[in-house]
Amino acid sequence: MDVIRGIPVSPGVVIGRLAVVDDTRGRWVPRRVLGDDIDPAAEVERFEAAREASIEDLQEIHREATEQMGREAANVFLFHIGALNDKAILDPIRACITQERVGAEFAVADTLRKWSAKFAAHKDPAFRTKVNDLDDLGTRLLGHLSGAESGTLSFDGPTIVASRDLTPSQTAGFDRDTVLAFVTDLGGPTSHTAIVARALGLPAVVGLKTLTLTAVDGDTVIVDGHRGTVILNPDEPTLQRYEASKKAVESYRLGLREVAGLPSVTKDGVGIELLGNIEFADEIKTVLEMGGHGVGLYRTEFLYLTNNTEPTEEDHYEAYAACVKQLDGRPLTIRTVDLGADKYTQARAHAPERNPFLGLRSIRYCLQNLPLFITQLRALLRASAHGPMKIMFPLVSSVHEFRQAKHILNDVMEDLHEAGIPFDESVAVGMMVETPAAAVMIDAFARDVDFFSIGTNDLVQYTLAVDRTNERVAHLYQPLHPAVVKLIRDVSRAGRRRERPVSCCGEAAADPAIAHLLIGLGLRTLSVTASSIPPLKRLVRAVTVADCERTAREALSFDSEIEAAAYVRDRARRLAPEAFEGRLED
Ligand code: PEP
Ligand code: MG
């Protein structure tokens, strides 16, 4: 039995069979360890057959390409054939199979990945372009080996997926009938992969560092998404203990649902609006079941992450109209696409950005890809004709940027007007506060912006300079750091002064301890993953605003995030023990 500690990102306890997979540039590759009954020589044979089949393909492609494009252009395929005869590539693949006793797919992917890294670092650009050729070659070989070239991952039976890393789209694409949970070596608590796991109710632990090197395909494993532990090959007493705790978790969840229908009002009668964050329109049902009053954040970029083709205006429109319909007059805030960073663009880029979280993401990406942006805005406005809706721009860092986005929206409104297409002319247009720049300049924004929503996931990462997806610095990712708390206080105060509503839709708001601080800082709307709504409602109903304000005053007096966090957590537990009941995290 081996107990490995990581970062809990999505609650739940699952016991099952592990499948270790690898992903090279968007392809799934099983990392099969050869059982004692398998002769590695047979696996090498399998590789040789795939190699020969690939060479045959390439000879045919080369012949056709020479006819159609000329000898010069067709030469690229000779490089591919050459690589398939090159001992510098073939020997490591064969050695990997026989010495490490792994399946041919993994040996191919691993060897080509190492060669790609060498080419990518070469100072001669001619070598660097070979990275794509090797990628192509890998796809071909893997295709012949097992048809492993696939965007979605499914299994024969219930499975727990172990992977070095997962993108949000890979996670969203899991076959929900077979994938029960996942565990990864990399990743941080507020990465989008973690957020998707919570949205899908898929228990997950990330940041396990070297799990995929020690775990073996087929191992029995316990994933404890509350405590962040993964237990490989558990002994019998441990299995029994976890079977019992699975039942306890289930009854705790059912108990929480009892508060769903109760009003979200503090003991001193102040209403706190609890909304849901969604990635897919069909999550609205769960938000409402959990007692959410509407949707405070719809992450529309997931329309791109779950399809191989770009969504059309109609695809956008149908998704938004479906939300409006399901919400039936309740609040709905739709965020324009927040692509980039850990979502979509890098996985598809020929030249990934060096520093994508500081790169072309969110509103910046939209402003540089106007057709994509306009398509979405048209659809949003068209759907606004059917019921209440607010539009929100992500990661705005300057007033100029907000005005640019608003200007484009106004142009789209004019076009719709001219075409006689109905829309809500007074649709509220707001922005996320996710950068220190936006928080510090909040007064200036308030002149142009109808409402603000604080995105602590990014605000914390940019204020503290801590990558939200990096497990190595996850301990430094502290939403209760005084620098963050002060920024939130300033935004909340400015919102009040300028009569601009301020909400919080970052993951921090889902933690009852932090939520009570946010109420104390003046926020009256919190938007969180559906499953976090019931404990928040318990919190709201157990505190007074004066209690929360006292916490906020005290929290702001600490210099150290450790002391501030200890104080806020301790106080929340005293004020509202019922909001923490049954939580297994601590
Ligand atoms: C945030 O940054 O807090 C947020 C809600 O946006 P996302 O998690 O999608 O980046
Ligand atoms: Mg964000």
Notes on the structure:
The chain is α/β, with parallel strands linked by helices. The chain has three domains: 115 residues, Glucose Oxidase, domain 1 (3-Layer(bba) Sandwich); 107 residues, PtsI, HPr-binding domain (Enzyme I, Chain A, domain 2); 321 residues, TIM Barrel (Alpha-Beta Barrel). It has 25 helices and 17 strands. Helix 1 runs antiparallel to helix 2, helix 1 packs across helix 6 and helix 22 packs across helix 25. The longest helix has 30 residues. It binds phosphoenolpyruvate (PEP) and magnesium ion.
Q: Can I get a quick summary?
A:
The chain has 586 residues and is an alpha/beta fold.
Jot down its keywords.
9-stranded mixed sheet, 25 helices, Enzyme I, Chain A, domain 2, 586 residues, binds magnesium ion, TIM Barrel, Glucose Oxidase, domain 1, alpha/beta, globular, 8-stranded parallel sheet
Secondary structure class reads: alpha/beta
Strand content: 5-15%
Instruction: State the fourth-level CATH superfamily of the largest domain.
Output: Phosphoenolpyruvate-binding domains
Distance between the termini: 23 Å
- Tell me about the biggest sheet? 9 strands, mixed
CATH topology of the largest domain: TIM Barrel
Unreliable spans are none
The CATH class of the largest domain turns out to be Alpha Beta
What is the level-2 CATH architecture name of the largest domain? Alpha-Beta Barrel
Chemical compounds bound to the protein: phosphoenolpyruvate, magnesium ion
Q: Could you report the average pLDDT, rounded to the nearest whole number?
A: 90
Whole-number total of structural domains: 3
Give the overall shape, derived from the CA principal axes.
Answer: globular
Helix content: 40-55%
β-strand number: 17
The Rg value, from CA coordinates, equals: 26 Å
Count of separate DSSP helical elements: 25
